Amino acid sequence: MSGPRRVCRQWAKVSFEKFAELARGPDAAINGVQMVSGFQLSDNLTWLKDQEAYYSDIVLNFRWLTDTDLSCFNQVYRHGIFYTTFTAEGQIYTPWLLEKAKSLGAKFVERKITDLTDLANEYDVVINCTGLRSANLTPDRHVRPQRGVLLQVKAPWIKHFVYDGNDETFICPGVNTVHIGTVRQIDDWRTHVDDESKEGILKRCSNILPSIKDAPIVKEWAGLRPYRMNPRCEREIITTPSGRKFPVIHNYGHGGNGFVMSWGCAQQVASLMDEYFKEKSKL
Ligand SMILES: Cc1cc2nc3c(=O)[nH]c(=O)nc-3n(C[C@H](O)[C@H](O)[C@H](O)COP(=O)(O)OP(=O)(O)OC[C@H]3O[C@@H](n4cnc5c(N)ncnc54)[C@H](O)[C@@H]3O)c2cc1C
Question: Where is 16: in which H helix or E strand?
């Protein structure tokens, strides 16, 4: 496993443990985090073995599907895995997280930043989590949009997730609806749901679970994942026009794994910040 991949895996492991804590904690009814089990199916054994290497010892109940298991699906797949993990439903989880941060004393100010050095006189350290727009603030040109489309349907009879690795199609039960998707369109900046993507998703998902065809669509959205070959989570010392050295900790470019890696990256940001203050105190 390559160095960056090993690091991402470690971030995912830390996050998994945190999501497990949130799912069993007192706020589980309101934080949008839940335990789910399900299937990843594919004809590509190499791809599934890669999934196994990446997280089989992080998730719960990981096992390979038998022919009997595979025969339960409407489509024919050559291989599959089963596991239990946690999902965090953004529309519920992020407002909860915001309130949690406020209750712990975090202050929120909304303001457009045109140059990171503008913050040098106000803050000791800046943590740059500007996602897809990070290229406006850094010389980094490696972040690109990877468009996704997601539909939420009312289908309470679906209790397991199914991910079809042959064509990146997923069906995943959320708190009140079932999420179905997706597309991965690189350098596509459209943020509206187009008919072609929507119809494609409905067709692919209905092939997996025919009952999806008649499930009412409750919501639909298109979003842009901040795609980068490897997420950037590191410290940089930048120099202000007046020559002052100023620390920025970058934390962006997580593509479609922003939640998956969130707690691990946050932990790394915190230790980079600690390191900086320790170094500073020795000067
Ligand atoms: C289609 C889609 C599917 C996804 N699927 C998954 C998934 O399966 N699993 C998973 O874990 N995650 C998933 N995600 C989540 C995804 O990984 C995160 O949305 C992504 O990492 C972006 O999060 P972020 O916090 O880095 O950036 P953002 O959420 O984009 O936040 C960046 C913030 O910085 C602000 N900002 C930017 N520039 C400036 C500036 N100059 N001045 C002031 N403010 C600025 C923006 O306004 C924004 O509030 C998905 C996202 C999408 C869009």
Answer: helix 3-24
Tell me yes or no: is domain 109-140+230-282 CATH 1.10.1740.10.
no
**How many whole angstroms separate alpha carbon 215 and alpha carbon 161?**
16
Six-digit token string for 188:
């596509």
Q: How many helices (H) and strands (E) in the chain?
A: 6, 12
Pocket of ligand 1 (CB under 6 A): 112-113, 129-133, 136-137, 148, 150, 223-226, 252, 254-260
| CATH for 144-227 (3.10.129.10, 3.30.365.10, 3.30.9.10, 3.30.420.40) | 3.30.9.10
Instruction: Using the atom order of ligand 1, give the atom closest to the CA of residue 136.
Output: 41
Name the residue of 9, 225, 268 whose CB sits within 8 Å of the most ligand 1 atoms, as the mutation to test its pocket. 225
Interaxial angle between packed helices 3-24 and 258-282, expressed in degrees from 0 to 180 and rounded to the nearest 10: 110
pLDDT tens per residue across all 283 residues of the chain: 777 899 999 999 999 999 999 999 999 999 999 999 999 999 999 999 999 999 999 999 999 999 999 999 999 999 999 999 999 999 999 999 999 999 999 999 999 999 999 999 999 999 999 999 999 999 999 999 999 999 999 999 999 999 999 999 999 999 999 999 999 999 999 999 999 999 999 999 999 999 999 999 999 999 999 999 999 999 999 999 999 999 999 999 999 999 999 999 999 999 999 999 999 898 7
Domain coordinates in residue numbering, the chain:
1-104, 109-140+230-282, 144-227
Per the DSSP assignment, residues forming a β-bridge with 128 are 250
